[in-house]
């Protein structure tokens, strides 16, 4: 499955600035690299005909690891992007809060 390239913030009509996760970027990338290795390991498990429950356990662990990265990014977004918008531009703050709410709703599948 391929995904569309990320649209830069300034291309979406917003101010060009560092993303909210800039201070934690290295941490997020390190965790994602570990998850990538974990996924490759799961693929090897299936290739090697490993026991179903063992494969499912690893899939569950990878999913939880991705959720932790997502929570970290959401936290960075609120502490950075949303807070900055609230301080500087009420209209943009409303937009950021709505965006955050929609993202949270999708993440929680509500």
Explain what you see:
- Pfam families: Trns_repr_metal (PF02583).
- Belongs to the CsoR family.
- Residues 1-25 are annotated as: Disordered.
- This is Transcriptional regulator.
- By secondary structure, this protein is mainly α.
- The protein has a single domain (22-108), classed as Methane Monooxygenase Hydroxylase, Chain G, domain 1, CATH 1.20.58.
- Helix content is 72%, strand content 0%.
- α1 runs antiparallel to α2 (52-88) and α2 (52-88) runs antiparallel to α3.
- It is elongated.
- The model is unreliable at 1-13 (pLDDT under 50).
Give helix and strand order, one letter per element, not per position. Answer: HHH
Overall SS class: mainly alpha
The H-level CATH homologous superfamily, spelled out, is: Metal-sensitive repressor, helix protomer
The biggest beta sheet, please? none
CATH fold naming:
Methane Monooxygenase Hydroxylase, Chain G, domain 1
**Mean pLDDT figure:** 85
Tell me the name of the CATH class: Mainly Alpha
InterPro entries: Metal_Tscrpt_repr, Metal_Tscrpt_repr_sf
GO molecular function: DNA binding; metal ion binding
Region (Disordered): 1-25
Protein name: Transcriptional regulator
């Amino acid at each position: 499955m391929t995904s569309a390239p990320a649209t830069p913030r300034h291309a979406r009509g917003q101010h060009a600035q560092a993303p909210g996760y800039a201070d934690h970027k290295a941490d997020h990338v390190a965790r994602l690299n570990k998850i990538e290795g974990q996924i490759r390991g799961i693929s090897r498990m299936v290739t090697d005909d490993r026991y179903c429950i063992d494969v499912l356990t690893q899939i569950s662990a990878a999913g939880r690891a991705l959720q932790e990265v997502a929570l970290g990014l959401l936290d960075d977004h609120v502490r950075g992007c949303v807070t900055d918008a609230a301080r500087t531009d009420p209209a943009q703050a409303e937009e950021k809060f709505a965006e955050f709410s929609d993202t949270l709703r999708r993440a929680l599948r509500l």
